[in-house]
């Protein structure tokens, strides 16, 4: 198909499409005034491309059938890509009940829409911190999250971040449900959904246009305990095994969920005063401060102006300690041994850090835990404060006005103070020692037995060499076997 065979409407549509894409990409100050110059530049660029294609065709001519097949394949691929993008814009169709084909649709009350984060506005803020997804990816991300929130019953939702993989990347959304279902056959140490490390649920996807969002499993304490000793790259496949030593006995979905929990509870921070909490009640839940007023950017350039929004994860892999039901016993009636055991157990318990603790209390052998930067300058009304974690590269919080946006973009690894070395394998088992108290004449049946020795009067049989038949025949004839001839020097 030649250029003359293409309808004028398609040529005009393609030209307008390229002009609009150029305007979106360059973002000129006066788009309307520079429309004609941009259109002329696009025509000039297309003319140069067309001339290059003609020279290539003269250098290596091809048959018309090959050109038509290549053009048809390009159109098919372009239509498929555009169709995937259109699916993000289209509203989901409502399924009709049986027998309602001829009836008029009844007016139903539309449910309240879940507040969806403004990804475009957050993306502009994050650009000051060096986090840039690109305008096209940010727009697709906004549409994909909106589609997910419309299909689910969320009370809160936001874009958590992006974790790189060796084969494909993970886009992650954090959300809260209006009602959490009860987990069936859950281990006793698992924190209930909506509490502790499972306060939020997470959805992931590898593609914003061609795949659906998949909910990650609830994080178990064992996931977090094992993940602290493992350092591997994610592949992008939730069902892939986690390779490495020590062995992580679950799939990649569990390892990803553990890393998300560790990053969230260590790096999600908010300005001081955004939430209030009753200091006298350690179990009190922070509540939003309606009287909070934005602070000067110069005052936000300090660790003392920021607090952790979430509690720390304990060594046992939980946010809240495990409380065992013990029988009440009067201390006066307790023996000295029980009192000592109880005191040792209380001393061994890890202290739970208070809620909304200041990030100035964070300590690390690497030095500073946080870095601060004001961009473009503190006197600009559009200025922002970017707070970056030094322990988890990729965790960034941007503050402007009364809002703070957190996002993580990285490989999901914590910074180490030395090159990573896998832990040594376990030591060899020592020689077996009998735990039994045996008498002198008894033998432990689990000990390794010595080999049985032959009797003392046993004599080994004498083995005689057998004579070959040839030697035997020569001996009967009386002849001696011939000696081999000496070799000549």
Secondary-structure map:
Layout: H1 8-26, H2 35-59, H3 64-89, H4 119-128, H5 135-151, E1 154-163, E2 170-177, E3 201-205, E4 214-215, H6 221-227, H7 252-267, E5 269-271, E6 275-276, E7 287-288, E8 306-308, H8 336-348, E9 370-375, E10 384-389, E11 395-400, E12 403-410, H9 469-477
Parallel strand pairs: 1-12
Antiparallel strand pairs: 1-2, 2-3, 3-4, 5-8, 6-7, 9-10, 10-11, 11-12
Helix pairs in contact: 1-2
Provide a short characterization of the protein structure.
The chain is of the alpha+beta class and 489 residues long. The chain starts with 7 loop residues before the first helix and ends in a 12-residue tail after the last helix.
- Overall geometry: extended
Distance between the termini: 91 Å
Largest sheet: 8 strands, mixed
Cα-based radius of gyration, to the nearest Å: 37 Å
Helix-and-strand structural type: alpha+beta
Fold and architecture overview:
By secondary structure, the chain is an alpha+beta fold. Among the domains are: 1-57; 116-323 and 351-422, no CATH class. Helices cover 29% and strands 12% of the residues. The protein has helices at residues 8-26, 35-59, 64-89, 119-128, 135-151, 221-227, 252-267, 336-348, 469-477; strands at 154-163, 170-177, 201-205, 214-215, 269-271, 275-276, 287-288, 306-308, 370-375, 384-389, 395-400, 403-410. The strands form 3 sheets. It has an 8-stranded mixed β-sheet, with helices on both faces. The protein has a two-stranded antiparallel sheet with strand order 5-8. A two-stranded antiparallel sheet has the order 6-7. α1 (8-26) packs across α2. The longest helix has 26 residues, at 64-89. The protein is extended. The N and C termini lie far apart (91 Å).
